[in-house]
Amino acid sequence: MLVLDWWERWQIPLYLAALVLGALIGLAAPATAPAFEVAINPVLMALLYATFLSVPLTKVGQALRDGRFLAGLTVLNFLIVPVVVYLLSRFVADDQALLLGVLLVLLAPCIDYVIAFSGLADPARLRLLSQLSAEGCGPVSVGELTETSGLSQPTVSHHLKRLTETGLLDKVRVGRTMTHQVRPELFAELRTVLQMD
Fold it and tell me: Rounded to 5 degrees, what are φ and ψ at 183?
């Protein structure tokens, strides 16, 4: 899991580096284009495989029972996205071939954003956030959260790391213990989102 975490954490700089490297190779040695063209499909398959590795397949049944999640996904995919795609595609509406390409890219089922955002909505993460957002909750250690949440220590540590990386939590050293707390400026908003107020 550490390798996947590293790839996920550095994916934007890696994508940018790949774009720059591709542009430099294409400009410096245009004769290499046919060789790289052959690699497009295998590289896309590898990227899709890597994307699907981060899907928690053991939780698919749980997701299918989550009515709010499915309703949100349905509204997004079948109402909001088509309207946005229609508006964006007006710029190329005169060229049928280009329009088809734009529609395929923008309307074809793509779960990248679903994986990213549903990762933040993991039930274990929400449980930890709820505990950290409880009224009067100060900095809490991993040990305390492990005890009160019923989750394993590695799971708690993993989720706290992710929540800290997203900017929801602050790390606070209390003596020799590293603790976590909800960032003060987000406290009220987070309680509202978690429907605690």
Answer: -60, 130
Beta carbons of 140 and 106 less than 8 angstroms apart: no
pLDDT in tens, 88-139: 899 898 999 888 888 888 887 655 555 555 555 566 666 666 776 665 567 7
Whether the model clears a pTM of 0.70, i.e. scores above it, the answer is: no
Rounded to whole angstroms, the Cα distance separating 48 from 15 reads 14
Tell me 134's DSSP state: S
| Helix axis angle, 81-89 to 96-107, nearest 10° | 160
Name every residue whose Cβ is closer than 8 Å to that of residue 122 and which is 6 or more positions away in sequence: 56, 159
| 167 phi-psi bin (left φ>0, alpha ψ -120 to 50, beta other) | left
Q: Which amino acid belongs to residue 81? A: V
